[in-house]
Amino acid sequence: MYIAEILALSAAVCIAMSGMLVSELRGRLPLLDLARLQMFAAFLMTGAVSLVIGGWRTVELWQFGYLAASSLFGIIIASTTYFATIYTAGPRATALLFSLTSPFAVLLGYVFLGETLSGQQGIGIACVLLGILLAIGARSPSKAKTVERTPWLGIALGVVTAFGQALGSLAARPAMASGVEPFTAMAVRSGLAALFFVLLVLVPHPVLKPASKITNRSLGFAAGSAFFGVGLGMSLLMAALAHGNVGIVSTLSSMTPVVILPMIWARTGIVPPAPAWMGAALAVIGTGLISL
Questions:
Q1: By three-state DSSP, how is residue 60 classified?
Q2: CB atoms near residue 205 (< 10 Å)
Q3: Membrane-spanning residues where (predicted)?
Q4: What is the pLDDT of residues 95-120, one digit of tens each?
C-alpha cells in the first residue's frame, strides 16, 4: 500500500487548491485582511487539535523562542509575501517560485549548520532554477492576449517568500528535533502571527486600516484557503511523513507547481503553455534530487 505517497500527493493538491482560492480574493480582499483572517483560522484549527491531543505540554520556553523566530520569518513575512505573490503574479508562478524553498533550505543548512552539499543536490538546485526560468518566461497561448509575462515584482515577492519559508524552517529545527508536537508548533507559529496582524490594526496608518466591510464570499474563500492549506494540507503532509520516507514524501508533496496547472486550465479555460508544464516538472525533479 502506498499510503504515504497518496497522502503526500493529496497534500500537494490541497496546497494548490489553497493557492487557487487565494487568487479568487485578488481585488476583493486587502492583503493584510487576508493575512489576518488566514492566521486566525489557522490558529483555531491547529490550536484545537493541539488541545485535544495535549500537544501544549511538549513546548518549553526555549523551544517557544525558536518557534517565535520561525513564525517571524516563515509566517509573518513569508505568508504575507506569499499572498502578495499570488495577487501580483498569480497562483501558477507562485507555486513555482515557492519550490525555491528547498534550494534555499539546503544552502542555509550548509552555511549555518555545517551540513554537506552533495553533487546530486547541486544538480537538483540547478534543475529547480532552470525549471523556474523556463516556466516564468513562458508566454500564454495567443487566445489569452490579456495575460502578460510574470511581473518582476511578483518574482521578487516569490523569492522572498521561499527564502523566508526556508529561514522559518531553519529556525524551527531545534524545537522540532527536540520533540515539539507538530500541530502545537504550527499553533504557536500561527497564533503569534495572528496576534501580530491584529496589533497592526492599532497602528494609525491608512494602509494598515482593516477593510470596512468584508463580504461573506470573501470570508468563505479566506477560510477555505486556510482549511486546504494549513488545516488539511499540512495535516496530510505530517501524516505522510509519519508513514513514509522523508525524501519521497518531500518530493511528492512538492508537486504543487504541476497539479495546479490543470486547476488553472479548468478555472480559466486556457491551457497553460508547454514550457509551463516542462518547467514545473523540472522544479519537481530538482526538489526530488535535493530531498532523496
A1: coil
A2: 7
A3: 6-25, 37-56, 62-83, 95-113, 119-138, 150-171, 183-207, 219-242, 248-266, 273-291
A4: 888 888 888 888 888 888 777 778 88
Are 267 and 20 in contact, with CB atoms under 8 Å apart? yes
Query: Once rounded to an integer, what is the mean pLDDT over residues 53-63?
Result: 88
Domain interval for residue 233: 3-291
- Judge whether 211 and 25 are in contact, CB under 8 Å: no
Q: Please state whether 114 falls in left (phi above 0), alpha (psi between -120 and 50) or beta.
A: left
Quote the CA–CA distance of 184 and 198 in Å, as a whole number.
21
How many distinct structural domains can be found in the chain? 1
Q: Which amino acid is at 202?
A: L
What residue ranges in the chain does DSSP mark as E strands?
A: none
Residue 253, CA distances (Å) to 3, 43, 56, 169 in order: 13, 22, 27, 16
Name the 3-class secondary structure at 138: coil
Report pTM: 0.84
CB 225 within 8 A of CB 45: no
Eight-class DSSP state of 24: T
